[in-house]
Amino acid sequence: MPRHLLNPMDFSVEELDKLMDLAGDIERNPDKYAHACDRKILATCFYEPSTRTRLSFESAMYHLGGHVLGFSSANSSSAAKGESVSDTIRMIGCYADICAMRHPKEGAPLVASEKAEIPVINAGDGGHQHPTQTLTDLLTIRSTKGHLDHQTIGLCGDLKFGRTVHSLIEALSRYEGMHFVLISPPELRVPEYITDLLKEKNIPFEEVISLDEAMPQLDILYMTRVQRERFFNEEDYIRMKDFYILNNDKMALAKEDMIVMHPLPRVNEIALEVDSDPRALYFKQAQYGMYIRMALILTLLEVEV
Ligand code: CP
Predict the structure, then answer these.
(1) Residue 102 catalytic?
(2) What's the domain count of the chain?
(3) Based on the domain organization, do 94 and 171 belong to the same domain?
(4) What is the pTM for the complete model shown?
(5) What is the CATH number of the domain that holds 64?
């Protein structure tokens, strides 16, 4: 049976370490991996818009010497004619060796994996999970801070619909000495299953509204955009969308070695003036995404270099 990545918890902490070590080796020695996936094909099946995830997957496969096919919207596939995800993945298995799938419905990549004869990677399913963003985030933190444990991390913005937040909290809950500061308006608090997980594991967390008050204690600030596409009505979105705007005045409240992360795309929640602050890591973070996806493709295809 092929191995899939549907949830960040599908990999043990030891496996994640190996994956990040491999990503680091790829970054340092790209030529060594330039033909690792010769004649292999990656399918990117994206039923929802994407810039970073789809293009970094495609770039990852090209850098490994492989090929890419796929679609970038449901409308340009036979989903528009009513084809199911289960039937689609059977077809993809005839044409490709591995598939990265994004879908607006939670659990769609899981459904695909149950019928798939090739590895399926969840590239984001609704407001649920985004495991390869989490791999990217973990690599960013480890590469910058030197370790993943003993961090006070503030997650700010749309914690209800932000799937990257859900995946990252689950993944980081396995490391020692973590402290989560969940910063959101009351309407956009993190789902209860996430706070239940933290309670079960006796991991300290606070749910707060004020970003200013939270800033001084943070080692990492993980900003998120308000997820317009998951709101039921436009009025609520407009009321919430500018609730948090990180600017230089707020950055002045933070530790000198705090890092700012964001899965991107950014809308208005980080002022452009913050981009030149050396603590702003979000563009570098997106670059790490390609290396970790190269490592993931090699691992799921069981390619040894
Ligand atoms: N971080 C992320 O998932 O970005 P895209 O939606 O552009 O893929």
Answers:
(1) yes
(2) 2
(3) no
(4) 0.95
(5) 3.40.50.1370
